[in-house]
Structure formats: structure tokens, C-alpha cells
Amino acid sequence: MCGRYASSAHPEALGEEFDVDEDLSKLSMRSILAAPQTPPAGQPDFAPLPAYELVARGGVKHTRGPSEPPAAGPLRLVPGSEIDLTLRPSTRVEGPLAVRAFVVQEATTRPWAAPVDVAPTGAMRLHGPVDKLFAGFEGALELRLVVGRAEALGSVDAAQKKALGAESAGPGWQVLRVAVELVKTP
Predict the structure, then answer these.
(1) What's the predicted TM-score (pTM) here?
(2) 90 partner at 20 to 30 Å CA-CA among 14, 110, 145, 146?
């Protein structure tokens, strides 16, 4: 039929109109109408997860004045400052989402308990005081944020494996990274 679509009160006439020799619509493998595709029982029916972008703000500003472009290199944080991480999806996300955050420093990886706000659009914001969120840490480290569908992230251990793995994304999840330097003075 070359992509043509037709509707009729007399469907038998369509076969003649479009020069169709045999009606295969009753075969389940041939017709979405005969066998609508639904997710397996117990599986959610959500659209695929769009790509996320990470915007990191906070800490030390290198110059004064109106908004400056983000500097290359790690996000420099000092005691008394705030960190603000925004995770933005490329398109609106429907359904429940989760994020699991980890601090990676040298050979050590630990879960990072930052407060998370989730917007109805699927955007997420992790923010708070540096003194509280990075207590016990100093120097260079990397934050790894695993965002996605809760069932795709799995347990904390499963999410940590994703955070440390070679893949940066998979079905229903994505890993975002930001380098951080904790400094004692601005």
C-alpha cells in the first residue's frame, strides 16, 4: 500500500481499490490492530528516557559581575558556600523518576545524600550547603549522578555499579558527572 491509509464503511471494497490480493490483517504478526503491543504484565508503559544535561553552580566565582560563563575545570567549593546541581531532560518526562548520587574520590565510592527536588517536567535539582553535604571530604572528587526510572536504577549497589561502569547510559538510566574541588579558602 506504499504508506497510504484509507477508511471505509465497506472494508471489503478497500481490497479492490488498493489492489490487495490477500487480507493478512488477521495474522497477529502482521497487524497491530489484531494484536496491540502492550508491555508485559507488571511492566510500566513509559516513553524512553530522554537525554539529560547537568548544570553545576556554586562555590567560588573567579570574577565579579553579571553572569559569567561556567569556567572549565572542576567546580570549586569552599566552606560556607552552596552547591546547586540541575539535571534537565531534553524533553518532558512522564512517570516516576529517581536519582542516586555517589562521591568518587581516588579508589573510594560512597553514596551521597543530597536533597533532591523533582519537577513535574522531569527536571531534578540537588542543592544544599557545602559544609553539610561534603562533611568528611576534602580535595578533588567527582560526583556521579545516576538518573532514570527507579526500576532501571535498581538497588543502591546496582546504581553504584552503573555509576562506576564504562557505559554512560542504558535502557531507562543515564550517568552524569561533575568534577569538584573542595578548597579551604576562596
Answers:
(1) 0.70
(2) 110
Distance of CA 133 to the CA centre of its chain: 22
As beta bridge partners, residue 144 has 102, 177
Contact 96, 150 (CB under 8 A): yes
Reported as a single tens digit per residue, the pLDDT across 97-150 is 999 999 999 989 999 988 899 999 999 999 999 999 999 898 999 999 999 998
Residue 178: is it exposed, middle or buried by C-beta count within 10 angstroms (0-12/13-18/19+)?
A: middle
pLDDT value, residue 156: 93
Q: Which amino acid is at 13?
A: A
CATH 2.60.40 maps onto the chain at 52-182
Whose cell is 579551604? That residue is 184
